[in-house]
Write a structure and sequence with these properties.
two-stranded antiparallel ribbon; single chain; mainly alpha; 6% strand; 225 residues; elongated; 4 strands
Length: 225
């Protein structure tokens, strides 16, 4: 069975973001194929995709390597989020489905409940699901792809501190959901921009991550897609 390149791409990207591969380290097709239990063909395709996304770079005499983004490039990511997330929220206000609203409202209820209980360990993943759902609700494939790539890169380059007042942060997400439900694009845009600006101060640039040794086979029924 031929393993899809996008599954291999997801596995490599996840390992880059998690720090399994150091920034600047070489990514050879042979080693990667062995690591993930696939042939070199999907690895080669995956590396091309990751290079186009900015996670991988090709160096003369070295081949494919994990990219080493600069502080300026990292700062640009937050600026792009500030532009694109409000745009996604505005589009979601006009294009969202009832299914999207149901998920957004459910996430807000869960987030507010966890915040009241002081269960901060769940809040980061819930927040990520909220923003992913909001992007999906924009019904704009290009915008969704850009925001997905941004989330991966921000997770790679930044450590994010828990908000000092999580209840207030989730109240903001609740207000965004209400604006989207009413179809108020401008309010959804402005509230999302304000929420993104407030979150900037919680981001701290990561140093080079230590190498981890976990391996992920992708040629199984449980392969990531």
């Amino acid at each position: 069975m031929r393993i899809p390149a996008h599954s291999v791409c997801t596995a490599i990207r996840d390992d880059i973001v998690s720090g399994a591969f150091e920034r600047g380290s070489r990514l050879t097709e042979e080693v990667l194929a062995r690591r993930y239990g696939v042939s070199r063909v999907p690895v080669r395709e995956a590396l091309r995709t990751l290079e186009s996304e900015g996670f991988v770079t090709t160096r003369r005499h070295a081949g494919a390597c994990v990219a080493e983004p600069t502080d300026l490039e990292a700062a640009d990511l937050l600026e792009l989020r500030l532009l694109l997330e409000p745009l996604a929220a505005a589009r979601a206000a006009g294009r969202r489905s009832e299914a999207h609203l149901k998920v957004l409202r459910g996430l807000v209820r869960l987030g507010q409940d966890r915040a009241r209980r002081g269960q901060g360990e769940d809040l980061r993943s819930l927040g990520g699901w909220f923003h992913e759902t909001l992007a999906q609700a924009s019904a704009s494939p290009g915008l969704i792809a850009l925001l997905t790539q941004l989330r991966h890169k921000v997770a790679w380059m930044y450590a994010v501190e828990a908000p000092a007042r999580p209840a207030e942060a989730w109240a903001e997400l609740g207000a965004i959901t209400d604006a989207v439900a009413r179809g108020d694009a401008e309010r959804a845009r402005s509230l999302t921009a304000l929420h993104a600006e407030r979150s900037f101060s919680a981001h701290r640039l990561r140093g080079p991550a230590p190498v981890r040794t976990s391996q992920h086979a992708v040629n199984t029924a449980s392969a990531r897609t």
